[in-house]
Specification:
The structure holds two protein chains of two kinds. By secondary structure, chain A is mainly alpha-helical. Chain A has a domain of 213 residues. Chain A is built from 19 helices and two strands. In chain A, strands 1-2 form a two-stranded antiparallel sheet. In chain A, a hairpin with a 4-residue loop joins β1 and β2. By secondary structure, chain B is mostly helical. Chain B has a domain of 104 residues: Up-down Bundle (Four Helix Bundle (Hemerythrin (Met), subunit A)), CATH 1.20.120. Chain B is 78% helix and 0% strand. In chain B, α1 runs antiparallel to α2, α2 runs antiparallel to α3 and α5 packs across α6. Classes of the chains: A mainly alpha, B mainly alpha.
Chain lengths: 473, 175
């Protein structure tokens, strides 16, 4: 067997082993940080090098194809950017920094496994690996703080346990119907079952619950605001973005397995998408804490992505993948601002942003790029992504769905622009200037450029996502 | 119905009763050790259900590992570890009950009707092929990836538990 296609996973295992050794030696922060960054870059390079590979591994339980590798590139890119953004790990308990990097690597490994797993048990275990590592990362925030990070972690854990239980229960029904745990075998018989057996629909929806939890879609979104407020900024940025990417990969695989003809599943996903958008956006309107606001916005964004997936055609799913790339960039932009604004890693309110443009023009611009992108105003990637998702839904003549989604975009503009207004409003005493380190400034400029350029010239990236989606649909 | 079938049916429902009863005891008990007793009863009930399904080896493992080893570790943990003297009264508030009961009822009803309306296709008859050899083959060939990943998951869980406990202790020690 040729193991070259598994290089990204091997890189991450190596990374976690390196930091496992580092937990004993406890080297200095500068060395740790460089090692983490270099290893994450190597992982990104490995995903890039294995992009063209394909094949089935481990007795057909693990599938490498253009689809999985595209998602792995996104996850590795996210890891690199988050490590770059969180340089210094100011919010993390200093004694546990090697462990922090180790669990970041392990969580990423779980996410990598999720994008490639094509067997139900492997899927559950990989979801659990990524979640368990996050349960540990959240309480490692430096104390003392307004909210207890342990509380956030426990909430995340209990809801995660419940979601996994529902997922396993749904899988037992699918196994009972199809007599196999391999997605390939199930996909042969499932479209027939979905048409005739009501339990197949229930089974699939229950199976998806564990993924909706990672995506923070409406009925399973309760953990999101607490985790956002409780966890350190670096951890929050990770939780907000990367698990969603992997969850989306699996949702697409499972929905593709069910076949595009199932109207019941279509309807259920649509209702969840709409409720998710409304709950997220309406709750975000009144928030003062920026991280809480971003948490609710993240719930709403899970709804937008589902609109793309519900279309169940290549255009819709490819735009959803494109959109999640944009979502990654825009969230890192917002968190980079929060991270640099809080030298002690404390939470920041919207009022705390006042006069930001005088304290640091670059940070204000990065925040503006992120917030404008999230609200979907051109010429950002947020606009192009939303436009393509809605166009795909329109093609399938889901007119009311598109209407409600557009209404939600309008609602969300209120609170995103409130952030921008606060950053650019003049105050008597803006406070001292924020001096950015050179890497942080470079990251800010790069992300701003990424948000705008990927929005104006989507063709190349969109071609990549379309190629990825074509390998599963 | 044949006489033996009736007996089998009775045994099945008895096992279900033991499993569910143990579960209720586990969540309803006010002392931690009583909860644990409920849990072990549930494990034994599940082991009985495995015998009912014809897989003796899995049932043996269930008794040995879950009913035996894990319960003993838990007892050990409870007895050695800190146990609160005062037992917190679990209060179930009225409005919660009002929401929870209809929701659960609805879910059960939905599942019941769905199960009744589904035409189950019986699996191809397997000739009592639940030997240890077969289980080993399945674990180490077909499901080898899952098997290996579970050990990684356990490792993450163990190191994670140690780190979480340590991080909390250090802070309460007044950093």
């Amino acid at each position: 067997m040729d193991y070259f296609p598994l290089l990204p996973e091997i890189m991450l295992i190596a990374m976690s082993l390196v930091f496992f050794a580092a937990t004993l030696a406890k080297p200095g922060q500068a060395l740790l940080e460089r090692a983490a960054f270099v290893l994450a870059l190597c992982t990104l390079a490995a995903t890039w090098a294995t992009y063209d590979q394909s094949g089935l591994f481990f007795y057909k339980a693990y599938r490498i194809d253009a689809f999985s590798q595209t998602f792995k590139i996104l996850i590795a890119l996210g890891l690199v950017l988050i490590l770059w953004m969180g340089a210094g790990l100011r919010g993390i308990n200093s004694w546990f920094r090697p462990e922090y990097y180790m669990f970041l690597a392990l969580s990423c490994l779980g996410l990598f496994l999720m994008t490639s797993a094509v067997e139900l048990l492997t899927i559950v275990i990989s979801i659990e690996i990524s979640s368990y590592a996050l349960f540990v990362l959240i309480p490692l925030r430096r104390q003392p703080f307004q909210r207890d990070p342990l509380e956030a972690s426990i909430k995340y854990f209990f809801l995660g346990a419940a979601a996994t239980g529902i997922t396993l229960y749904g899988m037992s029904y699918l196994f009972g119907l199809a007599h196999s745990t391999y997605l390939e075998d199930i996909s042969v018989v499932l479209p027939g079952f979905l048409a005739t057996q009501p339990l197949a629909v229930i089974g699939i929806v229950m199976l998806l619950c564990g993924l909706f939890y990672k995506l923070a879609l409406f009925p399973l979104h309760f953990w999101m605001p607490d985790v956002f407020v409780g966890a350190a900024h670096e951890t929050t940025c990770f939780v907000a973005t990367l698990p969603k990417i992997a969850a989306m990969a699996l949702i697409v695989r499972i929905v593709a397995m069910a076949g595009p003809g199932s109207h019941q599943i279509e309807l259920i996903l649509m209702i969840m998408a709409v409720l998710s958008m409304f709950v997220g956006n309406l709750s975000a309107l009144g928030q003062q804490d920026i991280k809480r606001l971003l948490a609710y916005s993240s719930i709403a964004h899970a709804g937008y992505m589902m609109v793309g997936i519900v279309s169940m055609n290549q255009l819709g799913i490819a735009s959803a993948v494109y959109y999640i790339y944009g979502y990654l960039l825009m969230n890192i932009a917002c968190f980079a601002v929060i991270y640099n604004l809080a030298p002690q890693g404390e939470n920041i309110t919207v009022d705390g942003l006042r006069g930001l443009y005088r304290r640091s023009p670059l940070l204000a611009a990065v925040l503006a790029a992120g917030a404008i992108g999230l609200s979907g105003i051109p010429p950002t990637i947020g606009f192009t992504g939303k436009f393509m998702i809605f166009a795909a839904a329109f093609q399938k003549s889901f007119y009311w769905l598109v209407g409600l989604a557009v209404l939600n975009v309008c609602i969300s503009a209120f609170y995103y622009l409130r952030l921008v207004r606060a950053a650019y409003s003049s105050v008597e005493e803006p406070g001292e200037r924020i001096s950015l380190t050179i890497p942080a400034a470079v990251l800010g400029v790069m992300i701003m450029a990424g948000i705008v350029l990927a929005g104006v010239f989507p063709q190349n990236f969109f071609r990549l996502t379309l190629k990825a989606v074509m390998s599963v649909l | 119905m044949h006489f033996y079938q009736i007996i089998a049916e009775i045994i099945f429902w008895l096992l279900v009763l033991i499993t569910i009863g143990g579960g209720f005891l586990a969540i309803g008990a006010r002392m931690l050790i009583h909860s644990l007793m409920g849990l072990s009863i549930t494990f034994l009930g599940v082991a009985g259900l495995y015998i009912y399904l014809g897989s003796f080896f899995i049932s043996l493992l269930q008794v040995l590992i879950y009913g035996g080893a894990i319960c003993i570790v838990l007892v050990f943990g409870i007895m050695v570890g800190y146990t609160p003297r005062q037992i917190v009264e679990t209060r179930i508030r009225g409005e919660n009950l009002l929401l929870a009961v209809p929701t659960c009822g609805l879910a059960v009803a939905l599942l019941y009707f769905a199960i009744r309306r589904t035409g189950w296709v019986p699996a191809a008859q397997r000739l009592a092929d639940y030997s240890i050899e077969r289980v080993g083959h399945t674990l180490l060939y077909d499901f080898c990836l899952g098997f290996e990943l579970i050990s990684l998951l356990l490792l993450v869980g163990m190191i994670g538990a140690i780190i979480v406990v340590n991080s909390q202790e250090e802070e309460s020690g007044g950093q």
